[in-house]
Design brief:
The protein is built from 20 helices and four strands. This is Alanine/glycine:cation symporter family protein.
Length: about 500
């Protein structure tokens, strides 16, 4: 029996068993209600409302403290002797690497195909709202993290939900917090194995095959798939063995590199078509409020834009606090401010650049997709770049590989923290997880397991329900932490610039 027939049999067996479960779970988690002629997924509304609430609660913190967040990333407010494993920049890039991925390339193309150019406007708005949610959850992640005797750190919803709820509500909060923590750990672990690992490897392999001759090319055979899977697994396994420090060292170089390559390519297309930029911007703004050919009109474009942004930046899902919790700091809110840059990079910058490139280049495949033809998002994005850069599919392949590897690394760390919370931090436990995770990477190039990936998506967004309830209950804690950090910033600035005030930090009352 050939390897191809074996993998096909496994795919069919898994799909046959899990498909009814995945379908039911997807219908529950992504339940939609008709609004203005289109369907609104309630989970997207849940995430957007959280962004609106926290934006108001913290006085537009994502805009008013944006410059301060950049200063913190630069190390301006670092303190000697701070507990943690990585610096602010490394924590940010490790978390960004878990969100910036294939969704920024393919998902955005699908969004502007279904929702028209106007979906871009709403995508940006949702990204801005998500910055406030990310600030809240990461501040809690650092506040309630667990520092182990060996200096390593564990954080995330599995830690701040039980600790924070116990601190605020006593015995009842403790019981609820423990139940939510176990659920959160399981949901993150499942998504990490299938969505953050297997799916990323599978899609990057598919893109690599497409530019190397397809199924008849050097990598099109089952042997080529196995080789690719083993190679990725080996790279991931080596980095995972080094823990968050090793992951941060890789992602702090990989993320800027992959984002730089991609954004430069976008800018080349935009500059070559510079005369088309005003019309493209006009179509985005007008399409947001007066879209043509979009089901549900304005609401349709809004929902599609919000959905793409919410699925891309993961604000409110509780995953990013795991990476950010390892930061070296004495002030939890300092990393919360750093984290609000994450949706800005992921959605406001990278997703918007993709959308703008497609709208400006206006490839034929985009028009066909808008007319209802089934065309893959990666194809549309690739065609947009190819209008100016005929060799771009090769560069896109490099970008996809970088995106995929960085995502696999970060979700490997997220999964490890969930695994150790559930099964303990012994060496045997950690080694078992790392072996399982690397095996899933090999399987990613051989198997599709789309049904399990669909389940993983549903699990991840189930986590958003659990996590955001906790964020609402613990928001007063975040408010106190922000006040404390802003007082520290004012004192530090006063010491460094005696006799000079910083208008951006005054008065504290207006920020919390």
């Amino acid at each position: 029996m050939s390897l191809d027939s074996v993998t096909q049999s496994v795919d069919e067996a898994v799909s046959g068993f899990f498909e009814p479960i995945a379908k039911w779970l997807g219908e529950v988690v992504f339940y939609t209600v008709p609004v203005g002629g289109t369907d609104l997924p309630l989970i997207v509304a849940w995430l957007v409302v959280a962004g609106l609430v926290f934006t108001g609660w913290f006085g537009l913190v994502q805009l008013r403290k944006f410059r301060l967040a950049v200063d913190v990333v630069r190390g301006k407010y670092d303190e000697e002797g701070s507990t943690g494993e990585v610096n602010h920049f490394q924590a940010l890039t490790a978390a960004v690497s878990g969100t910036v991925g294939l969704g920024n390339i393919a998902g955005v193309a699908v969004a502007v195909s279904i929702g028209g150019p106007g979906a871009t406007f709403w995508m940006i708005l949702c990204g801005l709202l998500g910055m406030a949610t990310k600030f809240v959850e990461v501040t809690l992640g650092v506040k309630y993290r667990e520092v182990h005797p060996d200096g390593t750190v564990s954080g995330g919803p599995m830690h701040y939900l039980p600790k924070g709820l116990t601190e605020r509500f006593g015995k009842n909060g403790k019981t609820l917090g423990k139940v939510l923590a176990v659920l959160a750990s399981f949901l993150i672990l499942f998504f990490g194995l299938f969505g953050g690992n297997l799916f990323q490897v599978n899609q990057s392999y598919a893109q690599l095959v497409s530019v190397t001759g397809g199924e008849d090319g050097a990598l099109g055979s089952s042997a080529g798939a196995l080789f690719f899977g083993i190679l990725i697994a080996a790279l991931v396994g080596i980095v995972l063995l080094g823990g968050i420090r090793s992951i941060a060292n890789v992602t702090s170089r990989l993320v800027p590199a992959m984002a730089g390559i991609y954004i430069v390519a976008c800018l080349i297309v935009i500059l070559v078509n510079i005369t088309a930029v005003p019309d493209a911007v006009t179509s985005i703004v007008e399409g947001a409020f007066n879209p043509e050919g979009v089901a549900g009109g304005v609401l349709g474009a809004l929902i599609i834009g919000f959905k793409r942004a919410a699925f891309s930046n993961e604000a409110g899902l509780g995953s990013a606090p795991i990476a950010h919790s390892a930061v070296r700091t004495k002030h939890p809110a300092s990393e919360g401010l750093v984290a609000l840059l994450e949706p800005f990079i992921d959605t406001v910058v990278v997703c918007t650049m993709t959308a703008l490139t497609i709208v400006i280049a206006n490839p034929a495949s985009w028009g066909e997709a808008r007319a209802g033809e089934d065309i893959g998002g990666v194809t549309i994005t690739s065609d947009a770049f190819e209008t100016v850069l005929p060799w771009f599919p090769y560069i896109l392949t490099v970008a996809v590989l970088l995106f995929a590897v960085s995502t696999v690394l970060t979700w490997g760390y997220y999964g490890l923290k969930s695994w150790t919370y559930l099964f303990g931090r012994s060496r045997a436990s950690e080694v078992t997880y790392k072996v399982v995770y690397t095996v899933f990477a090999v399987a990613g190039s051989l198997l599709t397991l789309q049904t399990l990936i669909d389940m993983a998506d549903a699990f991840l967004f189930t986590l958003a329900v659990i996590n955001i309830i906790g964020l609402y209950l613990l928001a007063p804690v975040v408010k106190r932490e922000l006040r404390t950090f802003l007082e520290f910033v004012r004192a530090r600035d006063a010491d460094q610039n005696p006799g000079k005030g910083d208008d951006d930090q005054e008065p504290v009352k207006t920020t919390v």
